[in-house]
Amino acid sequence: MEAVGGATVQINTRGACHLEAHMVRDALAELDLESVNLLFIENIGNLVCPASWDLGEDTRVVVIGTSEGDDKPAKYPQMFTLARAVVINKLDLLPHVNFDLAKVKRQVLAINPDMRIFEISCRTGEGLDEWCEWLLTEVTHTLEPAQAHGYKKIAYG
Q: Are the beta carbons of 53 and 21 closer than 8 angstroms?
């Protein structure tokens, strides 16, 4: 994020397997929130612990990579139940890894029929325009003027 001019704050979990809301709150004190329109909270660990903790986010997104295997929706259904979107990254690796894209999409939609699924490759740029358009829509159409601090918080794991 810093490489493109965004501010970042690293949160030390002190050995915990996930972030907690108070950690995020404390980190927010290090940012100039007047200049923030979109705040990403990147959780840590596997997809079990982060699913159980509300960080105060407005939107939850699950990010998975094709190199991690196609078992994530079946293995971590709670995370996919709570999310509004899933980003499947590293599409450029599909010819080289054991990842059934159609199976993953079926599993995701069986868990959460309203889930937005974005297929992207950060390496080639495939799908990034659609993902970025969705993010802009999330910020401009769901941000209420009376919302505290005037920014949209998106948590992903």
A: yes
pLDDT in tens, the chain (157 residues): 667 777 888 888 787 777 878 888 888 888 888 877 788 888 877 776 666 777 788 888 999 999 999 999 999 999 899 899 999 999 999 999 999 999 999 999 999 999 999 999 999 999 999 999 999 888 776 555 445 445 555 555 5
| Helix and strand totals (H; E) in the chain | 5, 5
CB 56 within 8 A of CB 153: yes
3-class SS letters over 78-129: HHHHHCCEEEEECHHHHHHCCCCHHHHHHHHHHHCCCCEEEECCCCCCCCHH
Q: What is the pTM of this model?
A: 0.82
59 DSSP β-pair partners: 154
Surface-to-core class of residue 149, CB atoms within 10 Å of its CB (0-12 exposed, 13-18 middle, 19+ buried): exposed
By 3-state DSSP, what share of the chain in percent is helix, strand and coil, each rounded to 5? Answer: 40, 15, 40
Spatial contact of 79 and 111, defined as CB atoms under 8 Å apart: no
Closest C-alpha among 87, 132, 123 to residue 105: 87
**Single-letter amino acid, residue 59:** T
